[in-house]
Every structure is written in structure tokens, then in C-alpha cells.
Amino acid sequence: MTGAEDAELVHRLDQFLRRYYAEAIAQLAERYPSEQRSLYIDYEDIFQYDPEIADDVLQAPEAIREYFEEALRLYDLPIDIELEDAHVRIYNLPQTIEVNEVSRHDNIGALLDVRGQVQKVSKVRPRLEEGVFECQRCGAPTTVPQSGDKRQDPYECEGCERQGPFSLRTRQSKWTDHQFARLQQPPERTRSGEGQTVDVHLEDDLTEAFNAGDRITLTGLLDIEDPRQEQSRDYNTSLSARAVVCEESDYEDINVEDHLDDIHAIATGKRGDPYDLLVDSVNPKHEGDEKVKLAIALQLFGGWAHEYPDGNRDRGDWHVLLLGDPGCGKSTFLRWVDKIAPRSTYASGKGASAAGMTAAAVSDDFGDAEWGLEAGALVLADGGVACVDEIDKMQDDAVSSMHDALESQQVHINKAGINTTLNARTALLAAGNPKHGRFDPHQPKAEQIDMGPTLLTRFDLMFMVSDAPDAERDRDVVNHMIESRQAAAKHTQGEELTESEEKAVEPRIPPDTLRAYIAHAKESCHPILKDETVKEKLNNYFVNFRQATSDKNGDNPVPLTYRKVEAIQRIAEASARVRLSETIDSEDVKRAIDLVEASMRQVGYDPENGQFDVDLIEAEASKSQRDRRKEIVQTIQELEGAVLSDLEDAIDASQEKLKHDVEVLKNEGRIYDGSNGELRRI
Q1: How far apart are CA 525 and CA 579, in angstroms?
Q2: Cβ proximity of 339 and 331 under 8 Å
Q3: Using alpha carbons only, what angle is made at residue 146 by residues 142 and 152, rounded to the nearest 5 degrees?
Q4: How far apart are CA 372 and CA 50, in angstroms?
Q5: How far apart are the first and last CA of the chain?
Q6: Are residues 421 and 359 in contact, defined by beta-carbon separation less than 8 angstroms?
Q7: Rounded CA separation 397/387 (Å)
Q8: Closest Cα partner for 317 from 439, 424, 434, 462?
């Protein structure tokens, strides 16, 4: 362009800023430079003003940015301030691409909008923008503008014209903040595969604009970096960030509009009972376990987080644990949820570390930074569901790291100079096996769960997916498996399915519709318990349930803790969301209570006295077990040693139970085997 053309373009951009961004520039001037250093401009506004300038933004992004910033510097402000180093950041380009589409040859040098999830970020470090070098021979300064990743020294001194040596004058040089980040494809986009990544350079006020785990749309220029190997024709690529917009909506990538009619028809009951439709749509390959299916369906809808005036927060997401014998279909539920949930991650607890489950400060493999922050499975699933298989085989450090993350839904990092908090607003669906491979029918099931009580109490619902022989049920399951595989074979070959085959494999709600249904409900629906009658119903249920096992001495098991009241409310909120209702009604509370009772009956019910006992989970032993073990110790003490037959005579319990209790007491160090074979108290 000629000087006149340059001036004309700057004038046009000045007119654009006055028409569209006068208020935004006034706000920038008030906050500049300590609170705000950039003016964000929507590409759509530029296109509406002048399509030719909008086209230049895509064809010559760096040149247009410089013209915009010149127009901003010349902008006539009513206050005495100069926006000398303010940035203009253009965002919302016509097309947004995924991370796996970035590194294409036709994108080199192009301005791109890239949507992805932040995998890791580095520390912020100073980067040299303009170096002032002092000649060690004559002392004259030489200024060298910097570009690229390597420092550029003067070729010769501007004073004596000799080639150095030079030293950098740090205080006279111009610096900016710099940070590396790595974007990855969101986990649900890869369906637990290895997603592609792209490295990002951030400068000035774009640093610390997001944390690991955040989902962002980043506007940037695709740069070519040094090849992976010397003389190689294959080059690395990276994005030089120009603007960053963090997602305001958790489900921006879900197309809800195309499914709204179907969603409202399902929610209002026009196609049948919505809860039955959901149960028939959850993991259709698996026959039976309707309570488990309902719980998983409601978990996908979830409750919503409540914030108190003092800043405290009650989580809305709730957690489900599936336990059972190998081969009974637990993992199929996790794989189905990972596929259908709008946001999800899938991980195996076997060998999982604390960093893999939550987050960690790790040694960087990009840039020059020594440490970076990397998100784990719970952080990557923020706003969705984390599916963890074989949770019983998880390392101890990983288990302990999950305790706070599951309750507070935050992950705290304090390591290598990094002190930050990441969001983990995630529902957990986990599966595990019994301690010894299969459940022993002669022992309480709760004792056979190889997980600590601290973690178990974080789960709102726990279900046993058992494999006990039952002729009628086995026949139904086998018939369903045969029909499912037959239907899958015909579908693979393009053949038409019969009505029974369709029912065996096709969900009542199509996957795309269900995914949109969940996203729409979570975004738009926040049900509240308003009805006083419904409140009284929940209150009476809890009080009556707690008093059901009371006796005059008050020495009774605790059947239900206050924690379960919160679980019931969260599940009731999810139930109301299915109907897209803003109000929780009595049926929602009843549905939640039924699921909680079904869960407790499987893992929190003591068959010895026919009572619910929360200590089966929270203390790893029921009250009846604790009383019997206490009686065993007292009997051994009174007899000054005892054999098993002595205990059978003195205590009303089966030989199998007494043997088990004796082994537990030995492991706890309360009794031991004497030299003559008698049991003795320590």
C-alpha cells in the first residue's frame, strides 16, 4: 500500500471503532494498563461493516492487526491517556476447527479458530521482545528486534562497527510475559483413543487466561518450527495465540436445536413414560438390572450445584459405584456412558496414579519451562462423567487424591512452585470386583469390597451386579445375548432386522437425541424443592427410617446418615430434569428414595438382625459383627484361652461366622494363637 492508502485504511478502521466499539474502548482506557490491555473485536462486526476488510483479516492477519492497533493508538479519547501498547484481538472467525485439523499444509500462516481442551500449561516466563546490546569494546548500544524462539544478537556494533562481543542490557531491553500451553481434542471426541495435540505460544495478557482442563476457542496463527530431525522435510507446527475465549456453555458443541421437538415430546410423556424410555435406552445390550440403568440415566442428567452466600458450594453431580463378579457386564455400562455422555473420560484404575486421575505438576516436554500443569481424568471430564473401571485395583495415592476431588469437585496443586486449583465438576461412574475375585455368599458383601470407607462414602449409590445362578433369569439373559449378537450380525451385513431384534439392540431414544436431551436439560433446567408437602415427605422419611431400629438403650445401628439426604435431593433434581421441570415433585423424591434404599439393601443391610446399618460401609463392620467380635474377645479372656468349640458353645453364631471373626481379630492384633493351640487375648 501507498502512504495515502495506509492512511485511508486507518481512517476506515477508526470509523469502525467509533461505530461499534466506542463503549468498549472507553472501558479499556479506564482499565489500561494494569487491569486490561486488549480490545476484543468480533469478526462478524468487521464483516458487517466492510466485507473487504474482513477478507483482509483472513488473508493478511498480521498486517490488518497492525493497522487496527494504529487506529486504536490514534483514537481520540476524552481522557488524558494513550493506548500505546494496547492490543487488538479479533475472534469468532467464520469457521472453527478441531485440534486434529490444525496441522495441515493449507493452514500454514493462516489465522485459525481452534476449539480444544487445555491438556497442560507451563509457568509464565519473561520473553525478550527488543534487545538492547552493549558493545564490550566501545560501550555503544545496539537495538535488535527479536522474533522466533532463539535470541538474535547484533551482527556488528553501530558505534565501532566491530562484531562484538556484546552483553544484553536487561533493564533497557523490552520484555513481555510468555507461556506455553498444549491443546488436545476433548476426550469424548476421541472416544478414549489417543487424541491429537497442538502446542500454543501465549504472550502478554493472554498468559494465565485459562487452566489445565478448561475448554477454549483459541484464535491464532499457525507457525512452522524447526524440523524434528536435522535436514528433515517434516516440520513441527505450533499456534501463536492472538485471542482466547473460554467456553461459557458446557455443551457448545452439542446440536440441540435439531432435536428440540423430540426432546419435548419425550419429556412431556407424549411418547410414553420418559423414565421407562431412558431405562430401555441405557446399554440395551445388557439384559436386566433396571435399577442400575435408571440410576445411570439419572446420573447423566445430574443435579445442579448450589452456592451459599458465604461462598460454600454443594455439588450437584453424584457418583455411582458398580460392584460385582467378573463377566457380569459392569464394564459395558461404563463403555456405554463414555460413548453417550456429552462429556466423558474413560480410565482404568489398574495402575492409575494420582496425577492420572486428578492433576499434577509435571516436567515439561515443550518449550524451555521446567514444570507444567497437566490435567487428569477427573479434570478433563469437568462438566461431564468420568468412567473408571477396576477402581479396586487403583494405587493408594490415586485413591487418596480422589477423596477431596469427588466431594469439593476441585483439585488443588501445590508443587514445584505451582499453587493453583482446577475444576473437577465431574460425576464418577466406577466399577470394581470383590477382594477375592467373586463374592462369597457366606460373608457380608460389604466386607468383600476392597476399598477404604473414606472413598466408599463419596458414592451416593452403590449396586451389586451379581452372577448368582437363577434358571429363569439366566434363560432371559442368554436369549437376549443370542438375539443381540444375531441382530448385530444382520446389521453389519445390511440386512433388515425383525421387531424383536430391533428391541434387543436399538435404544428407545436414539443416541444423538439422548445426548442433546441431556445437554439441554443440564443447561436450561435447575429444579428446586418448593412444595412444603414434598419437603415434609422427605423429612418424615428420614426421621422414620432413622427411628425404625431404635431401642430403649439407644444401642442400635445407624441406618441412614445425613449425607444420604443430600444424595436424595441430588437424585430428585436429576429426576425433575428428565421432565425439564423447574420444580421437584413428590414422585421425584420417591424415585430418589427408592434408588437409595435399593442401593443400601445391597451393601448397607445386615441380614443377621434384618436392619440397615451404615457402618457396613463407613466402619467396614456392622454393629452385630462388632458386638459378636467383642463377645469373642471377652469369652477368650474369661476362659483364659479358648478353642473354636468353646466359642460355639458360648456365642450364638454359626461356625463359619466365628471362623471369619477370629481371622479378622487376629489381623487386627486383638487375639493370637497360643502355644497350645488356644486363642488368647493380646
Answers
A1: 9
A2: no
A3: 70
A4: 42
A5: 95
A6: no
A7: 19
A8: 424
Question: Radius of gyration over alpha carbons of the chain, in Å?
Answer: 32
d(CA 595, CA 599): 6
CA proximity to 237, closest of 81, 103, 68, 80: 103
Residue 50, sorted as left (phi over 0), alpha (psi -120 to 50) or beta, turns out to be beta
> Looking at residues 649-668, what average pLDDT do you find?
73
Burial of 652 (0-12, 13-18, 19+ CB in 10 A): exposed
Angle (nearest 5°) at CA 98 between 426 and 225: 115
The answer, yes or no, to whether residue 436 has pLDDT greater than 80, is no
- Partner residues linked to 641 by β-bridges: none
User: What is the grid cell recorded at 387?
Assistant: 468412567
Number of H helices, E strands in the chain: 24, 26
Please state, in angstroms and as integers, the Cα–Cα distance from residue 232 to each residue in 103, 227, 228, 650, 663, following that order.
17, 6, 7, 83, 66
What pLDDT was estimated at residue 472? Answer: 59
CATH class of 96-246: mainly beta
Chain center to CA of 147 = 37
Q: Are 178 and 197 in contact (CB under 8 A)?
A: no
- Domain ranges in the chain? 3-91, 96-246, 623-681
**Does CATH place domain 3-91 in 3.30.1640.10?**
yes
Specify the amino acid at residue 545. F
C-alpha span between 576 and 355 (Å, rounded): 36
Residue range 623-681, CATH number: 1.10.10
Beta bridge partners of 184: 117, 197
pLDDT band at 671 (very low <50, low <70, confident <90, very high): confident
How many C-alpha atoms does 661 have within 13 Å on its Cβ side? 22
Q: What pLDDT is attached to residue 553?
A: 47
What pLDDT is stored for residue 492 in this prediction?
A: 67
- Averaged confidence pLDDT in the chain: 81
Strands of 46-140, DSSP E: 87-91, 96-98, 111-122, 125-135
Cell for 488?
448385530
Helix (H, G, I), strand (E, B) or coil at 410: strand
- pLDDT on residue 541: 81
Backbone angles phi, psi at 28, to 5 degrees: -60, -45
Q: Whole-model pTM?
A: 0.74
Residue 304, all three cell numbers: 445442579
